[in-house]
């Protein structure tokens, strides 16, 4: 749902950008024409019929420079970075951006009345025009999801109908960027909630089993019990820490190694395990806790067949721009339709596949649908889970 909303808002932003371009072209005599005349890239002699094309390009170019700052949300720093581009876009005497209770940033000499004008505009909930000496003002509310969060104010010596239309369109575009910033924040909160759910899934049954196993060595082999306690501490420190979205593949494999030491202590020789890793991919950034749930799932299913015995194999290969990871067990396997249901399940209520749907969902959200888990399985044929990770880290979500 978040992905769909993001696409819809991105499309809205593009449409608003085009609408903004055409609105500005209609007001070139009072706003953008002045900006172009002062801009360093202005070309005073254009071929006939090219003026409109130049205006459209310049409008969208300036808007693109302001967008990254606005996508950080409405605050003093983002307003300060965006306001100078909006000033160039409008070509007025001055431009200011306010929140609901403070003037955040301005470019050009604004009057002391900017906050008074903003409060009146926010109270009215629509664009307002204010006469003033020596400069009048057009002030338009900025909204996020229907809620007024601030205002955009443009000051000039002559307030025309064209200027009102232009400032209104620019404010709509700014509001669209702030909507996307709010959506990004909501997405990050959702991912953090999913991470907390994944940790909660790992903790209860694994902690109980690990501590029970360690307790069994306390009297018979105290040294072994101490070693396992240290391994358990290392695993817990990694798995339960407040982590960023990404870690390195080397750290993730270390976490898997600590987990396997505890499971080997529990199952003894019944559990066989092998790991083959290409050293070139160890620094590759991967989503935090993307491998341990797959190994845990493989052990759970791998130990079901062959009299409670099983083998788990992890292979990490260098595949050019990607790292390819497979986690395979030789257990009882499952019906492919069952595996499909596991991936489609709600990650918050995992049943037969601990963390599997959660990892699949996070991979798709971070890298795109083409990077979801691929599960190969059949009854009596074991299970293999494939994972692809691009070597270039995307922005953290």
Automatic annotation (TrEMBL):
Entry annotated with the keyword Transferase: yes
EC number: 2.7.13.3
Domain Histidine kinase: 291-393
Region forming the signal peptide: none
GO cellular component labels: membrane
PROSITE patterns per UniProt: HIS_KIN (PS50109)
Protein name, as recorded: histidine kinase
InterPro entries linked: Bact_2-comp_sensor_kinase (IPR050640), HATPase_C_sf (IPR036890), HATPase_dom (IPR003594), His_kinase_dom (IPR005467), Sig_transdc_His_kin-like_C (IPR004358), Sig_transdc_His_kin_internal (IPR010559)
Keywords for this protein: Kinase, Transferase, Two-component regulatory system
Keyword Transferase applies: yes
Organism this protein belongs to: Nonomuraea zeae
Pfam families linked to this entry: HATPase_c, His_kinase
The reaction(s) this protein catalyses: ATP + protein L-histidine = ADP + protein N-phospho-L-histidine
Classification lineage: Bacteria, Bacillati, Actinomycetota, Actinomycetes, Streptosporangiales
Top EC category: transferase
Entry GO MF terms: phosphorelay sensor kinase activity
């Amino acid at each position: 749902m978040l992905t769909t909303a993001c696409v819809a808002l991105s499309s809205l932003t593009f449409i608003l950008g085009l609408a903004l371009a055409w609105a500005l072209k209609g007001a070139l005599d009072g706003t953008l024409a002045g900006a172009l005349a002062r801009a360093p890239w202005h070309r005073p002699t254009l071929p006939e019929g090219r003026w409109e094309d130049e205006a459209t390009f310049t409008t969208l170019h300036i808007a693109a420079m302001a967008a990254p700052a606005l996508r950080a949300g409405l605050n003093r720093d983002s307003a300060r970075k965006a306001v100078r581009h909006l000033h160039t876009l409008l070509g007025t005497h001055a431009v200011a951006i306010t929140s609901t209770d403070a003037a955040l940033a301005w470019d050009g000499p604004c009057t002391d009345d900017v906050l008074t004008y903003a409060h009146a505009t926010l109270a009215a909930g629509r664009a307002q025009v204010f006469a003033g000496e020596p400069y009048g003002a057009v002030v338009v509310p900025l909204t996020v999801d229907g809620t007024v969060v601030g205002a955009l104010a443009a000051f000039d010596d002559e307030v025309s109908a064209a200027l009102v239309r232009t400032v209104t369109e620019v404010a709509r575009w700014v509001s669209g960027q702030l909507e996307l910033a709010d959506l990004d924040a909501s997405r990050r909160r959702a991912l953090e909630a999913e991470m907390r759910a994944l940790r909660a899934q790992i903790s209860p049954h694994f902690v109980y089993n690990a501590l029970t196993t360690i307790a069994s060595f306390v009297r018979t082999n105290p040294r072994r019990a101490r070693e396992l306690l240290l391994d358990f501490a290392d695993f817990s420190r990694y798995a339960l820490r407040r982590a960023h979205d990404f870690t390195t593949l080397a750290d993730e494999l270390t976490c898997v190694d600590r987990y396997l030491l505890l499971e080997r202590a529990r199952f003894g020789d019944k559990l066989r395990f092998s790991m083959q890793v290409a050293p070139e991919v160890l620094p590759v950034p991967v989503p935090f806790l993307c491998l341990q749930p797959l190994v845990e799932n493989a052990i759970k299913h791998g130990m079901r067949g062959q009299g409670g015995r099983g083998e788990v194999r992890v292979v990490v290969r260098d595949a050019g721009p990607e790292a390819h990871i497979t986690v395979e067990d030789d257990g009882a396997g499952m019906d492919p339709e069952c595996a499909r249901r596991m991936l489609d399940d709600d990650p918050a209520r995992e049943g037969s596949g601990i963390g599997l749907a959660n990892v699949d969902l996070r991979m798709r959200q971070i890298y795109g649908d083409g990077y979801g888990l691929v599960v190969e399985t059949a009854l009596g044929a074991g299970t293999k889970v494939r994972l692809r990770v691009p070597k270039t880290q995307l922005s953290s979500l």
